[in-house]
């Protein structure tokens, strides 16, 4: 059966006076996303509003709209004394999806965007001004992936890895860089500390310089050797379980969906609560997991 997918908003859009747009929450300096506010202001000031506001007609008040998405942009427009903005009109007053289903841009994706912009004639100074970031940071971003294997970059391109962690990749040979990227992905750990531990646990022949660094943060030679052995064991175990990971994940997800359906049955839930409350608690925790 072919299900028809309805659009979430009107593709044509409309230009509205800012006075007709009512935010559903107040933007405060303590908000998690407020750190990007100055960049939003600079971007609008330099190139205008790129991403439209998402609004929904306010019931009982013709000509006015609720703001579903774009609170930082609206505040920036008001600060810059704009009087109107281009908006997309949503077909439903669902603000949750816009705020929950947000894909944060990764460091590597940011590098790719900056590099592409420069290829099209935008200067680093213009990017610095538009994003309200230091010019040195923009120039550093251009060299972010120098010396890093393309396969490792592909594995990490949408992951929240830090610049400091990526810098440590250059100490390893390409094959080892790929191994490090795979271990980071499997462990969901992209910190500098973990990258540093992977480098310390890397055999000398897999390092770019061919020798162990003299400074190992006060770690003795015996401790380094033990870390190498533990890392070798970890990587061997990782490869042993890698092949079965997909199938096991599929089974676990199927089991979780089944448990969710069971808990939706009032009689089953009441029975478990009266006879096996501990089991019910475990099932509820399993059903609540966002990822297995």
Radius of gyration: 26 Å
CATH class category name of the domain at 14-100: Alpha Beta
Query: Can you name the CATH architecture of the domain at 14-100?
Result: Alpha-Beta Complex
Please identify the structural class as seen in this structure.
alpha/beta
Roughly what percent helix? 40-55%
Distance between the termini: 30 Å
Structure, explained:
The chain has 292 residues and is an alpha/beta fold. Among the domains are: 14-100, Conserved hypothetical protein from pyrococcus furiosus pfu- 392566-001, ParB domain, CATH 3.90.1530; 246-288. It is built from 13 helices and 5 strands. The protein has helices spanning 37-47, 71-79, 96-100, 107-119, 124-131, 135-142, 150-156, 163-169, 174-187, 192-200, 221-263, 266-275, 277-288; strands at residues 14-17, 21-23, 53-57, 65-69, 84-89. Strands 1-5-3-4-2 form a 5-stranded mixed beta sheet. A hairpin with a 7-residue loop joins strand 3 (53-57) and strand 4. It is flat, with a radius of gyration of 26 Å. The two termini are 30 Å apart.
């Amino acid at each position: 059966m072919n299900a028809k997918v309805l659009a979430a908003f009107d593709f044509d859009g409309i230009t509205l006076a800012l006075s007709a747009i009512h935010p559903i929450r107040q933007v405060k300096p303590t908000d998690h996303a407020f750190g990007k506010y100055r960049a939003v202001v600079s971007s609008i000031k330099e190139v205008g509003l790129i991403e439209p506001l998402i609004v929904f007609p306010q019931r009982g008040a013709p000509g006015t709209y609720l703001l579903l998405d774009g609170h930082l942009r609206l505040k920036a427009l008001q600060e810059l004394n704009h009087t109107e903005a281009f908006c997309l009109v949503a077909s439903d007053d669902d603000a949750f999806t816009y705020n929950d289903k947000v894909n944060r841009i990764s460091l590597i994706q940011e590098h790719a965007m900056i590099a592409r912009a420069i290829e099209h004639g935008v200067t680093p100074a213009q990017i610095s001004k538009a994003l309200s970031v230091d010019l040195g940071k923009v120039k550093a971003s251009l060299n972010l992936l120098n010396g890093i294997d393309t396969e490792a970059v592909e594995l990490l391109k949408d992951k929240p890895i830090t610049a400091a962690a990526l810098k440590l990749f250059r100490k390893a040979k390409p094959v080892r860089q790929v191994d490090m990227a795979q271990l980071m992905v499997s462990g969901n750990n992209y910190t500098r500390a973990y990258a540093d531990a992977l480098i310390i646990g890397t055999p000398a022949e897999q390092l770019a310089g061919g020798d162990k660094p003299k400074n190992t943060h006060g770690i003795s030679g015996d401790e380094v050797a033990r870390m190498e052995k533990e890392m070798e064991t970890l990587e061997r175990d990782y490869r042993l379980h890698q092949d079965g990971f997909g199938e096991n994940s599929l089974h676990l997800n199927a089991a979780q969906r089944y448990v969710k359906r069971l808990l939706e049955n009032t009689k089953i839930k009441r029975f478990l609560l009266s006879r096996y409350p501990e089991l019910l608690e475990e099932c509820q925790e399993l059903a609540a997991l966002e990822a297995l």
